[in-house]
Design brief:
Elements lengths: L6 E7 L6 H9 L7 E6 L6 H6 L6 E5 L6 H10 L8 E5 L3 E3 L3 H8 L5 E9 L9 E2 L4 H9 L25 E3 L1 E2 L3 E5 H7 L11 H11 L3 E12 L8 H18 L2 H20 L3 H11 L3 H7 L1
Parallel strand pairs: 1-2, 1-4, 2-3, 6-11
Antiparallel strand pairs: 4-10, 5-11, 6-10, 7-9, 8-11
Length: 304
Amino acid sequence: MTSPARLAAVIVTYNSADVIGDCLRSLSEQTPPPDSVIVVDNASKDESRVIAAEFADIAVQVIELGQNTGYAAAVNAGLAALDLNTLDAVLVLNPDCRVRAGALNVLASALQEEGRGIAVPRLVNPDGSLQPSLRREPTVGRALVEALLPGRLAGRLGSLGELVTDPSAYERAGVTAWATGAAMLLSVAALREVGPWDESFLLYSEETEYSLRASDKGWLTWYEPAAVFEHIGGESGSNPMLASLMTVNKVALFRRRHNRLHSAAFFIAVAVGESIRMATGRRTSRASVAALLQPSRRVRELVS
């Protein structure tokens, strides 16, 4: 009989008092629960740290960073606090996630196959509906298609869109280029080879960069639909500052991985798409266009 995987969890909080308790409770109810749970707090102004520290059902170590260092930096701080020699994998988890019964064990089992470095679950909304989370690798063509087609239509047209929106695709386990970083189980072997998360992104695109960098080194990102996590979701679709940060970082990541010509074409495609949406009155797109033209503003606004 195969022994259970030795797992730890790293959760990054920022004003997460209304969700962190349920997140921790869902981990405590797994069979078995993680061996270690690290909550890294990015200077929350609410009771996030207190709730995590006083959680009684499992042992939780709280790390207070004292400032909002960004998601990747907080993940790295949590990973640094773990003894990887005693672990098989680490779950990087958003505080607004709840792990459904048995899901962590299913995800860990999926990660045991050779070549898989990252395993991601099926994400659902609080009402149980599918939350599209799988992505194809960013390309100029996909950016242009998503710029010109309304809503999530591009994701339904074969492989034209970056976001996979076809519900049938979420019924099949398999390799994906990357996935929403709300819940990612990372093998220790991959962690050692791929290295720390890139802290320059501050927020958004860090999970994309990590998955693509892992792929560069031969590690697959595996989607496992039998592992179900509930994810409330953030404000990136309605908060202009967060939306602009997501847009700018998407362009910055593409530039790191491609030549100047392709990077310029990608920038134009993204800018065209946001400009079209801005013309319809969308506030998030207006902020995104402004940030593309003056990207340094996004950091000042986030950390202020």
